[in-house]
C-alpha cells in the first residue's frame, strides 16, 4: 500500500493506493497517526481513488483515524471512492459517519465551507 501526501492550505491530502486489508491496515494506520501527530493544525482529506479493495480492517482504520482527528477539533473527509468501496460503506452503514465526496476538488471546497 502506497501512501503519498500533499499539502493544500491547511489540509493534508493523503493518497492511498492498492489494497487496504488486514495485512496492510496496521502499517497505514500507524503512518496516518504519525501524520496527524506531526501536523496538529492540519485537516485531513483521504483520496481513495486508487484503493482497489478495502476489508473490515481498512474500515476500522478509517474509523480510528476519524476519531483521532475529531478529538483534536479537526476535520476528516474522504474522496474518490470506487463503487466497490462505496458499497462496503453503504452495507455497514458508515456513509453518515464520514464526509464522502465524489472528487478531491469537491472535498477541498467543502473544507472551506465547514471551517469558516
Keywords:
five-stranded mixed beta sheet; single chain; alpha/beta; 116 residues; 4 helices
Strand content: 25-35%
Can you tell me the residue ranges where pLDDT is under 50 for at least 5 consecutive residues? none
Largest beta-sheet details: 5 strands, mixed
What's the SSE pattern?
EEHEHEHEH
Helicity, in percent?
40-55%
Query: What's the β-strand tally?
Result: 5
Rg result? 13 Å
Structural class: alpha/beta
Q: What is the end-to-end distance?
A: 34 Å
Task: Please write out the topology.
Blueprint: E1 2-8, E2 11-20, H1 25-38, E3 43-54, H2 56-71, E4 76-79, H3 83-91, E5 99-101, H4 104-115
Parallel strand pairs: 2-3, 3-4, 4-5
Antiparallel strand pairs: 1-2
Mind explaining what this structure looks like?
- This protein is an alpha/beta fold.
- The chain is 44% helix and 31% strand.
- Strands 1-2-3-4-5 form a five-stranded mixed sheet, with helices on both faces.
- It is globular.
Q: Could you provide a short overview of the structure?
A:
The protein has helices spanning about 25-40, 55-70, 85-90, 105-115, and strands at about 1-10, 10-20, 45-55, 75-80, 100.
